[in-house]
């Protein structure tokens, strides 16, 4: 039997409430409070048996272009000092304390030499070592008249790499952030590289969430016959951006294993290799692909 996932894995998504919008916190204290709150929820997930734990996009800051520069941390050269990146050090310590792999949602990052800002995810091993990073590759620039206009590219720069991370005890995961899920190519490449799970810390909103969140999660699962996890912040109607919530885990047939509502919660699912293998046996698109017919999915080849 082919092995994508070396042993069963309990996955937890922490749909975190961050208090970053609150005016009553002194400057900087909201981030410290959010890191401390994230710690308690990650430890709760670990107590619940999870060995891979995911936090949401911008888990310790408000989501909005006006906030990114204020909350940005410097990650390079790596490892950064505690002053440069309190979140790096907090996440590393939390992963070690939880004895679990930790996908630290994302944080705004400032690259000091270029002075560019990124939306960046940090991944730590159970010993607290950094084992991967992903900079959001596709920026959330949309304009739905009368509903929502958002332009991440006013402040952020896109990352230029796709990310597959090896969790030595379990296997490979594809990691991307929120709007990246709308681009099936990156998911497909991660799956072709053997990922058993595609993870998206994300913050869809109350307009695009009902339209596309679950659909996209299930689509990436059915396209690739992998598990898919989408981890959102909980909804906060006092914040300037209203996150959709509804964190979910889909199985390799695109069935929803578990889905949150909009409130703070932790959801869990048990992942196993047999489900991936059996899904691919039953509907064998995996071996039926015709890369001889479409070797260049960008459509840019001269053929
Ligand atoms: N916030 C995002 O990056 C993406 C999103 O909300 C959407 O694609 O819709």
Number of strands: 15
Per DSSP, what share of the residues sits in E-state strands of 2 or more residues?
A: 15-25%
Q: In percent, how helical is the residue content? A: 25-40%
Alpha-carbon distance between the two ends = 37 Å
* Main sheet specs: 7 strands, mixed
The backbone outline, from C-alpha atoms, is globular
Structural class: alpha/beta
Radius of gyration: 19 Å
Mean pLDDT figure: 95
How do the helices and strands follow one another from N- to C-terminus? EHEHHEEEEEEEEHEHEEEEHH
**Poorly predicted tracts of residues:** none
List bound small molecules.
Answer: the ligand NC(=O)CC(=O)C(=O)O
Number of DSSP helical runs: 7
GO molecular function: omega-amidase activity
Family: Belongs to the carbon-nitrogen hydrolase superfamily. NIT1/NIT2 family.
Domain CN hydrolase: 9-273
Keywords: Hydrolase
Report on this model:
The protein has 303 residues and is of the alpha/beta class. It has helices spanning 29-47, 68-71, 86-98, 184-192, 208-224, 273-282, 285-288, and strands spanning 9-15, 52-54, 101-103, 107-111, 116-124, 130-135, 141-144, 148-151, 163-167, 171-175, 197-201, 227-231, 248-250, 256-259, 265-271. The strands form three sheets. Strands 1, 2, 3, 4, 5, 6 and 15 form a seven-stranded mixed beta sheet that branches. Strands 9-10-11-12-13-14 form a six-stranded mixed beta sheet, covered by helices on one side. The protein has a two-stranded antiparallel sheet with strand order 7-8. Strand 1, helix 1 and strand 2 form a beta-alpha-beta unit. The longest helix is centred in the first third of the chain and has 19 residues, at 29-47. The ligand NC(=O)CC(=O)C(=O)O is lined by residues 140, 178-179, 182, 203-205, 208. It holds the Pfam family CN_hydrolase.
